[in-house]
User: Fold this.
Amino acid sequence: MASDKIIKSRFFFEDEVEEKLAEVPTEEPDSWQADEKLAKVGKPYSRIDGYDKVSGTARYAFDMHLPNMAQAKTLRCPLAHARIKGIDTRKAEKLSGVLAVLTHRNTPEIKWYGTSFLFDTHLRYEGDEVACVIAETESIAEQAIKLINVDYEELDHVVDAKEAMQDSAPKLYDSGNIRNGEPGTYSRGEVEKGFAQADTVIEDTYRTQIAIHNPTEVHCSVVNWDGDRLTVWDSTQGIFRVRDGVANSLNIPLNSVRVIKKYMGGGFGSKLEAGKYTVMAALAAKQIGRPVRITLDRKEMNLAVGNRPDSVQTLKGGVKKDGTLTALFHHSYGAIGAHPSNAQCSWPLKSMYKCDNVKVEEYSVYINAGRARPFRAPGHVQGFFALESLLDDLAEKINMDPLEFRLKNYADKDQVYNIPYTSKVLREAYQKGADAIGWQNRSEKPGSGRGPVKRGIGMSSQIWWGGGGPPAYATLKLNRDGTLRVIAGTQDIGTGTYTFMAQVAAEALELPMEKVEVILGDTAVAPYCGASGGSTTAPSVSPAVRNAAENMKAKLISGAAAHLEVPESQLTYQKGMVNHKTNTDKSIAIDQLVREMGEQVMVSIGKRGANPEGYMINTFGAQFADVQVDTETGKIRVNKIVAAHDIGRVLNVKTLENQMHGGVIQGLSFALMEERVIDRYTGKVVTFNMHDYKMPTIMDMPDIEMFIVSGGDPKISSTGVKGVGEPAMIPTPAAIANAVYNAIGVRIKQLPMTPDKVLNALYR
Amino acid sequence: MAKNKKNSRSMSRRDFMKGFGSGVVGGSIMLQTLHAAPPPTTGTFKDESNRVELTLKVNGKLVQTKITPHTTLIELIRDKLALTGTKVVCNHGECGACTVLLDGRAVYSCHMLALDAHGKEVITVEGLMQGEELHPLQEAFIEKDGMQCGFCTPGQIMAAQGLLNEHPHPNREQILKGMSGNICRCSAYPKIADSVVAAAKK
Assistant:
């Protein structure tokens, strides 16, 4: 086998380019071809972790219980902006059952968010960490928190991005409230010239709300020290990120920290980093010499562990009579909360359609509220709502069918980097989607339906990255009974990673699925894989598993050649056997071979190959919505969503369909229901539970029809897989918004489209 | 991928990540500090809360115990009986993750006192099993993939069992209504509905 090499790998993780050195294989099996018929990959296998989840035996970090374990709770700032003048923890410490109280006074200054600390005395939002109580029970810890007396100096606050941008606004940082002091900018061509060439120009402003991830399992950790070695069970999307964050914060070696996550109850982007709570628990556990469990409650989830930034987007588009887009301009600002994050949302406008003249200016603004984090397709969900609304309005102005308008401006290459795509199967998605929703029956005159309940059809396109890339590694262990274990440092966040990895290994080694077991989510035993975000897990990890399987095959052939005393070139691998090409007596089963070799297990390692140079890897798709709007009550009902996507190869059609449903319904929720509301006078969040923060139930689900129009993309990797988690959600709100316009003839430019907004739009 | 981004000044979330968790200010003091920390502030912990007697049946077994009166049913199930299949998500009767059967009816166990289950029978997700064997309803959830992350799944399954106890042959409307008290943030709703339909046919 040729030795492997190290390359500089670059690919999009969420909406930013990640650059990492990565070891990649120099030899790879031929990629499965686009339409190759595979025995196991693509098939609707039930989740291999299904038993654990339905029986209740799946152990989440929340469920971990260690002997002599103590419980921790966090005191959070009740004000939007304050300074700690004094803190008195004596009463809390005296409460029977309290073991320790951590504050800024008795803990080291551990840096956080660049310029802040684990416990900062400058509290910048309601929910900022003030103290941590460790007690015998959760209930005692909660009581003790109420006994801590904090003398706050209340400071002026600002909880609205627009207000925060004014010079007169209270400052969160000395350098001002605009992150980096300036907007993010981008331009290509000459935008003014482009607008001058247009026959029609429209400018409009669109607004989207702040949304909270609200995964069902709260952020939580259980930590345990063995001497100077720390084990952390964490509810996380990125075990290695947690390991690095915790080790750096505590200033201990990386090999002293082991992070384990077997199951986790949802993340959606809010669990991509090490949490303060984990470090607090580790500090406390060291101090009291006992394991510590720390959990947030639902209110803390709604204050302190991330959100999708809001956006106020002013878009301007120019178009010729024939439908050619001549120029696009995007100006936006959004609130990122009290600490560094990013509210950019211009990627859809920059990358979706062919347009030579584009200009972007976007501001990320600090306010006194919890910090934003990536949330399922950061920027894209907001950006597409604005872009696709504008596009429909432009199409109407020039009397063009909205779908025809999009086809007219179809991008044949990447618009930002000016390089070809590895593949793009979007025309077929438009066609399938349009046929399935009945596009030809769509009313061309918006709002012309009769009666108070009006029906409409709308659509939106979608682009995302989701190509993944190296580094990602997998280890295979072949036992001497012919069973196989796949081990990788990735994590299954509910998407079906356990199952597809077994399918890929079973496919490549032609083994029955029952013989394959998968171990994920343990930094101590698994080789490195990235965090599960950016729809990169399947495209990054599946080729590493296949590579490991091919390496295992090569070893088995080599072993069989030595044992049978024939040249390797005369042997082939088939279905758990190494066979001689001509002499049927000379063959051996792999379990027998492992035993003959005197080994208990045989190990191979696989690596994700490099992405092709000079290409952009994107997913594409289109969703079509059929809605009805009650013009008397303002209530919108989504009847049907058709989701037609290019996501490369399908690994498991059952779990894929489930993820598609999830994306669509979360998109529907963002379009119609959920919104974090802050009272601007007190700066306090008023939607901090699951009653006031509206999320859909089973009653709200629309009929969902899915089409995957792509086969494998052999240019990307040996498996040809792209991601799907984020693409599934991106176009839904925009498609619903355009369908609502088609139904009532009035455009709603602000999400969520609650009944009050519908009625105001109709009758104000 | 091309490396250069022309005319571009984009803000990075990772600028923050670089500064984050970058260690202790002023060197490595922490662990030493903590080793030298004073012993825990309290001595022996004696829980002196008032306790009352409670008798109920959980998953077919008689449980006789003493609890503080404010103990909720979910606290009894998870903390005292160590049945962690049942989950806590909102702890306010808003999401259904803690659903168990009380005398055959689906209830939110976070939203009622354990004392209110006195003399009654509670079935949790563990109680549907026959040893290691799955109940047909649980099998239906696997077969139809009525889950994603799985955290709300035990509650969904118990709500479904409550629904099937009430309507052994539910129509679609009854299924949707019966399952509408259980939030699945992953939004696996279509396949949860399919699972209940499949289970009803078994």
